[in-house]
Amino acid sequence: MMSKVGLIIKREYGARVKKRSFLLITAFVPLLVAGLVFLAMWFSIQEIKQINVLVVDPGNLCHGKVFTGDETNAPAIFSFVQEDVSLDDFQHHETYNGFDLMLGIQAQVITNKGIKGVYREPITPKAEYYIKDKIELRLEEYFALDRGISINEYRQIRQEFNFNLSSIDPDAQDMTYARWVGIVFSTLIFLFIYIYASQVTHGVLEEKTSRIVEILVSSVKPFQLMIGKIIGIGLVGLTQFAIWIVLIGLSLFLMREFIFQDILNPEVLADAMTNAGNLTGDAMSGQSSQIMKDSALIDVIYNGVPWSTLLFLFLIYFIGGYLLFGAIFAIVGAAVDSETDSHQAMLPVQLIVIFIYVIGCFVVFNPSGATAMWLSQIPFTSPFIMLQRISAGAVHYTELLLSLLLLAVTIFVTLKGAAKVYRTGILMYGKKASWKEIFKWLRYSK
Amino acid sequence: MEVLRVENIVKQYAGHTALDDISIGTKKGEIFGLLGPNGAGKTTLIRVINQIIGPDSGKVFLDGKPIHPEDVAKIGYLPEERGLYKKMKVYDQVMYFARLKGMGKVEAKRKIDHWFEKFEITSWYNRKVEELSKGMAQKIQFIITVLHEPKLLILDEPFSGFDPINAQLIRNEILELKKNGASILLSTHNMNSVEEICDSIALIDQSKLILNGKLAEVKKEFKSNTYAVQFKGMTFGFANALFADFSLEKSEQIDEDRAVAYVKLLKGNTLNHLLKTVMPVVEIESINEVIPSMKDVFIQAVQGKKGGNDE
């Protein structure tokens, strides 16, 4: 009996893996991802082009006092002039050809808080942020001095507070970033179910419309046929996912080694972080604190996420969710009679899957709330929700056990029900079954 | 000993009865015709025998024992509406179905080679089914049905889709399978093929079994005591000679002075009586009892005009 299911799995798997479309998509997706990453990297390199800023500063508020550190690759460099430069001169006079941006700082800037500038080419947001940050800092210091506060006092005031929340439980880890890992897992489960569970519908329908099923059911039980198909297609999906992960990983690795050595090199990243650390004492800027946050993310990814537990549970919910929705999609395939009908009939189920996923994305903000708690128990939503709650450290193991138990029971019941509908539906030609009929089929005992 | 025995099968669906107390049996080396109008319940019965659906009550026996899921290996089923995986290669496909029937790889390969060589189609091995014509695909399906040498073959409209030459080929194969001891349940609307190859028949109409038995006996049952009398002489005189004891059903003129008259004997009259009556008026050339064709039997049985009723 098992060997028949094995044969069906083998056929379902082999037939799909050998398809040209499978090979194309399997190769194309990593290429696409690698291509997008390449473009993103490429553009981020392009951004590094330094902006030459001409600061027209008649009041001499800034000259020599804008702190730029010793960054070699700063997004902008500043030059100062005290005499007025007309727009016309800036535009046409060759003296100013080398400048990309002209900023005017009037003496009354402290009162009207207005700084105007003109650029030749639009400035990237990153460079604009940098320029604004530097000029603002200096002007604030000037403002402080004007009010009789010393520069040192002002810098102490300006320094960001290190806002650090931690659990009362000394063993608990900071899960802020780990939650996002949960979202990534939920997304993978969602994509997998969305892409491959719908293939179950098509597979069932193919056998039904071509009447192969007539020959098949005289050799195997409909349940064997259904479960073999669901598992076979699931394995195709796992193969594709595995190849994608390997190919995407490999292409990122190759890009780091050969194209973007500087950007993706961990040592360079580490240097940047050290620089940022040095900076904090002198002049705290938003940028440096951002780098600190980045390093916290990297730290959490390597040390803060309970990987082994999460990966294990990911696999379980992944398989459970797929089996559950695979059975439902098999029902859809058995209940309809043509490809056109199947798209219509699949839509509600697909929308429900999307809806659950979207809700799941909101759970990340309140993983301990009642909604999240309930959704992580309901078997149709738990595969999308539970991992986020676990990665946020919001789940007691009894909750987890209950959720898994409910999921297992529901899979069992759904597969049994699906088998009944399937058995009747696959031999029913020429019409689309109504929901009423499907429930009637569910009640047939034989 | 009966290979297949179906006993008191009842199958009801919401709103209608598909099979109402059906009992039939087929012997070893017998071709059994399962007949009936569309929607009579034949396909349901075949599905019950194939264990695709379960009956509400009644039993199916194979070789005298209640049928068991593992028995699918002993049955070969060629459904009326049949298909194959379009994108799959012919050889892989036949191998797949053989393995599903429980055959080992080596044995299956040997049998596949045997059948493909027999049909001279080994060149199709690596072709995809979508490249084959309908008749070619039908041949593959026939091979899939018989490959595992089942003792019971269930063939639903096996000749549909074949040209006359290939239909003849399949007919000969069926007869050979019969000779080798297979019991064959044949469901068809083609009454000619029923007459040619069936040993026994069962006729189902509106979920009920209305006829069952040896082909010759069933046909005998439908004899209407009618004789075809070929004679030389005037048809008018012949007709006049028949009084109230006989009924002239119809007559056909062969040439100017010869004709065939179909005469039904009424009220316990004998053939001798008829001869005495007509011999004085015409010169009799031959007399044959009219045996109804299966087509006539079918139509009469289904329309409730059983020949013996007025006897």
3D structure, described in words:
The complex is a heterodimer of chains A (446) and B (311). With 446 residues, chain A is mainly alpha-helical. Chain A folds into two domains: 2-32 and 175-443, no CATH class; 51-158, D-Maltodextrin-Binding Protein, domain 2 (3-Layer(aba) Sandwich), CATH 3.40.190. Chain A is 68% helix and 4% strand. Chain A is built from 18 helices and four strands. In chain A, strands 2-1-3-4 form a four-stranded mixed beta sheet, covered by helices on one side. In chain A, helix 1 (2-17) crosses helix 9 (222-258), helix 7 runs antiparallel to helix 14 and helix 14 packs parallel to helix 16. The longest helix of chain A is centred in the middle third of the chain and has 37 residues, at 222-258. Residues 276-292 of chain A have low confidence and may be disordered. With 311 residues, chain B is of the alpha/beta class. Chain B folds into two domains: 2-217, P-loop containing nucleotide triphosphate hydrolases (Rossmann fold, 3-Layer(aba) Sandwich); 224-290, Ribosomal protein S6/Translation elongation factor EF1B (Alpha-Beta Plaits, 2-Layer Sandwich). Chain B has helices at 42-49, 90-100, 105-118, 134-146, 164-179, 191-197, 215-221, 235-241, 271-278, 294-302; strands spanning 2-13, 16-27, 31-35, 57-62, 65-66, 75-78, 152-156, 183-187, 200-205, 208-214, 226-232, 246-255, 258-265, 283-289. A six-stranded mixed beta sheet of chain B has the order 6-7-8-3-9-10, with helices on both faces. In chain B, strand 4 and strand 5 (65-66) form a beta hairpin. In chain B, helix 2 crosses helix 3 (105-118) and helix 2 (90-100) packs parallel to helix 4 (134-146). Chain B is elongated and about 75 Å long.
